[in-house]
Fold this protein.
Amino acid sequence: MRRFRSVRVLARQVTTFAFSVGFAACGNTPRAASGVTALPSSAAIDSAARVLMQRAEVQGLTIAVIDGGSVRHVGAYGMRNVAKGLPLTPRTVMYGASLTKTAVAYLVLQLVDEGRIALDRSIADYLPKPLPEYPDYQDLANDPRWKQLTLRILLNHASGFANFRWLEEDRVLRFHFDPGARYAYSGEGFYIVQLVLEEALGLELGAEMERRLFAPHGLTRTSMQWRADFAEDLADGYAEDGSMEPHDERSRPSAAGSMDTSIEDQARLWAAIVRGDGLSDSSRAELIRAQLPIRSKHQFPTLREDRGGHDEMLGLSAGLGLVTYRDVDGPVWFKGGHNDWTGNMVVCRERQRRCVVLLANDVRAERIYPELVRLVLGDLLLPWSWEYSWYTP
């Protein structure tokens, strides 16, 4: 409990101090009745980021701001490796973690637009052999519910699987509820999305992501697997206790979260996503449409069924590889990415096409994200306590 109390105290302290510093730096920032602020200056963003990082003992953080679908600010602060004295730069390669999932959903929608695949057909219609005949899915041999799985269900995190099978006590993959019944975050579902794309369509995920998303938008420091040239400017990670973990050299693409990237590249990628580049208007709308109510109190642990009421108050729902809800000024959607040494977050106001993209090689950065998001996007009803179960306003 000591950690959670300290986080709450920190949140109150940084809110008071950082916003006096941040908004002083950009002058008197007008606030619309909707709660949307005028875009703060780059100096204000940089100042607030550094103050908040110092208070939370965050080693490295990067920020990109998108407004009207265009990149307005990119900043990098702190260190990519403290012991070696190496600074974090806008080009530094960082772990994208589960931000990968939204990018994969975007790829799927391009294939939907081309008529190569459909969101609501059973995966059994696409796979050349039954799912349990693949080595990784033999656990499902006696459960025909796998035929109920569709790409939409998998991208909505409604597969019925645990986040990962290795989190099960016996490490066996199983359905905990009927596919499509409710939201429960699952990387296992995205493994099956990848299987369908590769087995049914003959695609190689890493190459297809490069061809369709990364190369067209100039993402030269982004890949679905390790590249040797990343080593020249690479971020190692920092845990809650400040210990360092070397950057993992992922040997193969994974739809659940293998993307390596930089903040410069993520700024370009999310600007393209918010504009809807490469998608039909209907598919871009489908990406963020509220498709499945999210009734859980917290996102993690994934299989708990305690109610949070966010679905009734905010319309909190699954989109495709992201989460969406109704704010005062219209839809807001977001996606996080996390491991013990990484804290990433993207939040977008749909109507203004304004987003803040946050990549950190220090998991403690998640403590300061509510304040940084508020600085850029204004007052939001975003359910931080659902995203981060430790959060208390």
